[in-house]
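A note on notation is needed here, since sequence and fold are reported together in a single record. The reader may check this reading against the record printed directly beneath this paragraph.
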Amino acid sequence: MKQGTESPPQLLLIPCSCGTTFAVPEQYDQHGGQLSRYLICPGCGKRHDPRNRLLHLGYQREGYWKVDGC
């Protein structure tokens, strides 16, 4: 990552009612990796609308991930 020119990487954390929590890159739908508008839970197969109930994780300079806005 170049200093000053790029923002730190971001992840979207998706909690599922089955107890599984999974993450995808913030731009998951812009890189051709997602064929559906919904994200599928790897634990139970439930479909999640990415516009709802997502936690945003940002990578900190100190070397760890942190939920943004908390």
In short: The CA atoms of residues 3 and 61 lie 10 Å apart. Residues 10-67 form one domain. The chain is about 0% helix and 35% strand. Strands lie at 10-15, 21-25, 39-40, 47-48, 55-59, 65-67.
